[in-house]
Design a protein that fits this description.
This protein is α/β, with parallel strands linked by helices. The protein is 28% helix and 24% strand. The protein has two domains: 436 residues, Rossmann fold, CATH 3.40.50; 112 residues, GMP Synthetase, Chain A, domain 3, CATH 3.30.300.30. The protein is built from 17 helices and 28 strands. The strands form six sheets. It has a nine-stranded mixed β-sheet. The structure holds adenosine monophosphate. The site of adenosine monophosphate has 19 residues, from strand 14, strand 22 and strand 23.
Amino acid sequence: MQHDHRTMEHPRICKPTQPSRTPHLTDYDTTVAQFSWSEAQAQLDGLPAGGGLNMAHEAVDRHVMNGRGQQTAIRWLGKHGERRALSYTELSRASNQFANALESLGVKPGERVFVLMGRLPELYVSVLGALKARCVVTPLFSAFGPEPIATRADLGDARVLVTTPELYQRKLRALRERLPGLRHVIVVGPAPTEDAGLHAWDALVAAASTQYTIAPTDPESTALLHFTSGTTGRPKGVLHAHAAVLAHAVTGRFALDLHDDDVFWCTADPGWVTGTSYGILAPLVCGVTNVVVEAEFDAQTWYGVLAGERVTVWYTAPTAIRMMMKLGTEALRGHDLSALRFMASVGEPLNPEAVVWGVQAFGLPFHDNWWQTETGGIMVSNFVSMDIKPGSMGKPLPGITAAIVRLEDGRVHLLEEPDMDGELALKAPWPSMMRGYLNEDARYRRCFVDGWYLTGDLARRDAEGYYWFVGRADDVIKSAGHLIGPFEVESALMEHPAVAEAGVIGIPDPVLGEMVKAFVALKPGFDAGEPLRRELLGHARKRLGAAVAPRQIDFRDNLPKTRSGKIMRRLLKARELGLPEGDLSTLESDEKK
Ligand code: AMP
């Protein structure tokens, strides 16, 4: 999606003259000048006796050791009205039990533990416990269909998977033959069958010892494996080290302004990177009370949470904000939101109107910020103590050097002049920079040129140093904040016996940002009618899950291809949107990374 903010005039929103509390970052330029990652390290404790750095220790155990064990770490609101609170001490003990359970199964450090479930307390306990056991954690989106689950569990060599009995029966059981390396499945609740390697949480985890000592952890050892999508090929496994927790601490304070008495709510699902870094790690590292809401989006439910829990800092996403905007400010009536003091948004372009609507509806603007799976943490942000230019993603985090660049003859050329479109690049390294793509060294190396990490996003910087998102340099789709690889969708469609070719693109959608649309050419003998269209939509939904499947399918006699036979998604898109085709017909789909 291309955005031209130069033509949009929105008055800037001045920083609060009297913020309701002193922000961690009081003056942007001064902080940038003074900041160093090595000094910021003092925000962390490290494992006792020089044992290195472990994310779960920083997120949980050290608060207990520092006398804050009684503070509520997680306040969970179940979708049927249940409530559960876990103090830092309770979370420490529960995650100890999970770490002990993994050891009792013979699971070794470095082995991969996948978590596939809705936002249940056990998800948080599993992630933290697996980190304590020095396993590599991969949260999977519970709304994924069987195909994305199987692809990721296979690529990531999942050794253990934690899920619910219902998801096991519905999505996982039939896949187990395809995943011979998956030795253990732990289900939260009673084991639904007697399948090999299937364990009930209560018998295995809840019965384990609450005492556990984290073994020395190399800060550079892998902690998280997140899957993200590229233009072609299978999903990319992004590896993050325990050292990334420093960026979670720093961004939690600077970009989200978290203080340890805050009540924080990140609406993202931990199946996506925001829901892990900012729905689990950063808030706990900053010692706040982290509100977890199991229910899916519903404006009244959300307003009820904000008011009822007295949320002070709220981190959400443009699609949800647009859905709330559609309902108007009247929907807020009767909700006491006086506790709310900071609102942030991430994941897709935040339209200037949404920033301004925040002020009308909540008395506060949404602070947009930018990052991606590979950067591990927020990199560009509208900080509380700076004016907002609605439509801008803000300025680089202190400690991060950003630039707008163009690649020329394989070298990075910095575009120093303001208002030039180019690729957003970040000077490597920083603590939460990905440490690799799983089994894809060459692809990883291609992301770095002349010491710069190339993000694959197009952006521009204005004369005051604010960054503006322009679009993606590649063909990936952002729908409702979820990054979707067209190839994964095309592959699922191609499995249907009627499909000869498929090309998948994102088309602009006023609420979702982009909507997934497929173009399909049929094999001879199949009738391009409504029944088949419906069948294909259903087929894709069943394989991929509703969040990834196309919402529209158009039939074509054939699809435009390059000489080497690649489907030209950009040409499909240009034709669909009535844009000039220009020299697109000579372009291969760009495979940046
Ligand atoms: P993911 O890796 O799934 O978190 O997706 C990262 C991508 O989402 C980025 O590379 C951008 O294309 C997009 N994105 C994230 N935050 C923003 C933002 N504030 N404005 C525009 N696009 C964003």
